[in-house]
Amino acid sequence: MKASLIVLGCILSAPAFAARNVEEFKTNAGTLKITTVMHAGFVIEAGGQVVIVDPAQGSWDGIPQADLILITDIHGDHLNRSMIAKVKKPNGTVIAPEAVTKTVTEAQILRNGETKTIGTWKVEAVPMYNLKRGPSEGKLYHDKGRGNGYIVTFGGLRIYIAGDTEGIPEMRSLKNIDVAFVPMNLPYTMTPEEAADAVKAFHPRVVYPYHYMGSDPKAFEAALAGTGIEVRIRNWY
Q1: Is the dihedral of CA 113, 75, 160, 52 positive or negative?
Q2: What is the pLDDT of residue 19?
Q3: Quick check: helix, strand or coil at residue 86?
Q4: In terms of Cα–Cα distance, which of 25, 76, 27 is closest to 54?
Q5: What is the dihedral of CA 24, 36, 161, 28, to 10 degrees?
Q6: Distance of CA 12 to CAs 64, 184, 194, Å?
Q7: Who contacts 137 (Cβ-Cβ below 8 Å, separation ≥6)?
Q8: What does the pLDDT look like over 76-89, one tens digit per residue?
Q9: What is the pTM assigned to this prediction?
Q10: Contact 156, 1 (CB under 8 A)
Q11: Phi, then psi, of 219 in degrees rounded to 5
């Protein structure tokens, strides 16, 4: 049975989550909660477990410690060694691409195309990379295979975390994505219009623009008007 995407409500934040957006989704295995933190960092809670994505920027005070941490890339807006130590449970697991393990040596390596099950969570690593944008001619900000996007599944609900990427073929060919987090900031990823074009191709039910500092998420929303894709703009900064 397909997980329901009915939002149970935007919850009033407890003091520990002041000014953070907290939303709940129904799944086949119970309620799943998503809390935005900053830029590329957010929290997923379900089944009594906590998953944290890219705890690197912003305040993580009051955030419940993680059973599982997912790191997408080596850049400082995604990877913060001291923050990982702060938010991880003593027996928590870190999953990351191989390049990250030079810094986070305890992380379990997951390469593009590989899948791992941790407790009640299924985690699939998918490509994230630049097609054309880079610091100089012939170089890219994000090389193919270095970083991970992720598809996280709980109770039939499929959450796509794009990481730093352009609208690559692997994104455009995704299937059955319920909730997506997609970046849009220059020069590192995409324009809002490019991001919207890629999202149209795989057509998630709900999409959150994130990692958008310096870009206008309203332009992304406008570009998806009439597609049936629900755009949720939240305060990441």
Answers
A1: positive
A2: 58
A3: helix
A4: 76
A5: -10
A6: 17, 28, 33
A7: none
A8: 999 999 999 999 99
A9: 0.93
A10: yes
A11: -65, -35
Compute the distance between CA of residue 129 and CA of residue 41 in angstroms, rounded to an integer: 19
- Please choose, from the candidates 47, 58, 6, 62, the residue with its C-alpha nearest in 3D space to the C-alpha of residue 152: 47
**pLDDT for position 158:** 98
Geometric angle at alpha carbon 119, from 118 and 121, rounded to 5°? 65
The pLDDT value given to residue 20: 87
- Nearest alpha carbon to residue 202 among 151, 140, 147: 151
CB 200 within 8 A of CB 173: no
* Residue recorded with tokens 């794009």: 162
| Residue whose token pair is 């990823």 | 189
Distance (Å, whole) CA 40 – CA 59:
13
Place of tokens 């958008």: 212
Phi, psi of 109 (to 5 degrees): -80, 130
| Mean pLDDT, residues 130-147 | 96
Q: What is the pLDDT of residues 186-231, one digit of tens each?
A: 999 999 999 999 999 999 999 999 999 999 999 999 999 999 999 9
Residues in the chain: 237
Q: Please state, in angstroms and rounded to a whole number, the distance separating the CA atoms of residues 125 and 153.
A: 12
